[in-house]
């Protein structure tokens, strides 16, 4: 076994001491989107700092614990707080929890994030299902010797986001009068928000929303053969012509306000698993 697989196993063994279920899904909660965790029943919580080899999260709005319990009766593991490259972690650290959730037994990964809108049809508070992404982050989580037991050297990325889950989410949204966009997420390093020219550039190359997370976790999930469903809450609009200052507080506020819609879609999808 390699050092990485040893570490994944050690983290998994530690978590299994506190919770013996096999989760069907993992959930990564984005900035200001932690309320979904309240829907998890009979839960056990474990601080990241107690789990062997887990990094510790440093951003406001990310509390930093694993929540294990039942959502609509289905065993799930949720991350309240995720790791970002801009915090100084390596991509291997950023994606370590995805590998641990896979080790625990998940087959599907749900991801939420706050993102800046670049599509002229988007408004603050809208939801966008990620149907594809463009990776503009500077380090690749799979760089280095490939661990063949975790996945292939050259993973296919033609459908990293499950078409079946996207279709199911569309049906759930329609049945509940929730309007949804689907679009392309551009993953960037941060921690600056984008300049006006950068937002424009990212729109020109095919992006509908931009954010500082998600892409590394999706890549490692694809490597591991997990199905993925990911959704952005549009918390600011980067392409406005008028005065347009974007703050972290406004991002958290918009994410919080849109959270109930996102929770409904995630929990219904999990119920249907
Ligand atoms: N850019 C990058 N990341 C973000 C944004 C944005 O405009 N909004 C929320 N996260």
Write the layout of secondary structure elements.
Layout: H1 3-18, E1 25-29, E2 41-47, E3 65-71, E4 74-80, H2 91-104, E5 108-117, E6 127-135, H3 163-175, E7 180-187, H4 196-204, E8 209-211, H5 215-223, E9 227-237, H6 248-272
Parallel strand pairs: 1-4, 1-5, 5-9, 6-7, 7-8
Antiparallel strand pairs: 2-3, 3-4, 5-8, 6-9
Helix pairs in contact: 1-2, 2-5, 3-6
The structure holds hypoxanthine.
Hypoxanthine (HPA) binds next to strand 5, strand 8 and strand 9.
Explained architecture:
With 273 residues, the protein is α/β, with parallel strands linked by helices. It has one domain (3-272): Rossmann fold (3-Layer(aba) Sandwich). The chain is 32% helix and 25% strand. The chain has a 5-stranded mixed beta barrel, surrounded by 4 helices. Helix 1 (3-18) crosses helix 2 (91-104). The radius of gyration is 18 Å and the shape is globular. It binds hypoxanthine (HPA). It comes from Chitinophaga solisilvae. GO terms for molecular function: purine-nucleoside phosphorylase activity. Pfam families: PNP_UDP_1.
* The top level CATH class name: Alpha Beta
Q: Which topology does CATH recognise?
A: Rossmann fold
The rounded distance between the terminal residues' Cα atoms is 32 Å
* Rg from alpha-carbon coordinates: 18 Å
Count of domains: 1
Order of helices and strands: HEEEEHEEHEHEHEH
* Main sheet attributes: strand count, strand direction, barrel closure: 5 strands, mixed, barrel
Proportion of residues in extended strands: 15-25%
GO molecular function, one term: purine-nucleoside phosphorylase activity
EC number: 2.4.2.1
Enzyme class: transferase
Protein name: Purine nucleoside phosphorylase
């Amino acid at each position: 076994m390699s050092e990485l697989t040893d570490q994944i196993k050690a983290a998994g063994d530690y978590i299994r001491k506190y919770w013996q279920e096999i989760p069907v899904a993992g959930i990564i909660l984005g900035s200001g989107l932690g309320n979904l965790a309240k829907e998890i029943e009979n839960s056990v919580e474990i601080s990241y700092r107690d789990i062997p080899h887990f990094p510790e999260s440093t951003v406001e709005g990310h509390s930093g614990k694993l929540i294990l319990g039942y959502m609509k009766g289905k065993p799930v593991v949720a991350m309240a707080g995720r790791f970002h490259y801009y915090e100084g972690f390596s991509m291997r650290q950023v994606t370590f929890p995805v590998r641990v959730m896979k080790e625990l037994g998940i087959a599907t990964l749900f991801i939420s994030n706050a993102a800046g809108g670049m599509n002229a049809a988007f408004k603050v508070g809208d939801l966008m299902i990620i149907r594809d992404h463009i990776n503009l982050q500077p380090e690749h989580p799979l760089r280095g010797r490939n661990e063949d037991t975790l996945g292939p050297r050259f993973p296919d990325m033609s459908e990293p986001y499950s078409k079946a889950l996207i279709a199911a989410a569309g049906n759930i949204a329609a049945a509940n009068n929730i309007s949804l966009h689907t679009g392309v997420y551009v993953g960037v390093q941060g921690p600056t928000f984008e300049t006006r020219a950068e937002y424009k550039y990212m729109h020109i190359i095919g992006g509908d929303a931009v954010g500082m997370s998600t892409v590394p976790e999706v890549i490692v999930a694809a490597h591991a053969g997990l199905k993925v469903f990911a959704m952005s809450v549009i918390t600011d609009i980067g392409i406005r012509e008028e005065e347009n200052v974007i703050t972290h507080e406004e991002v958290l506020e918009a994410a919080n306000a849109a959270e109930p819609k996102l929770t409904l879609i995630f929990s219904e999808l999990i119920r249907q698993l």
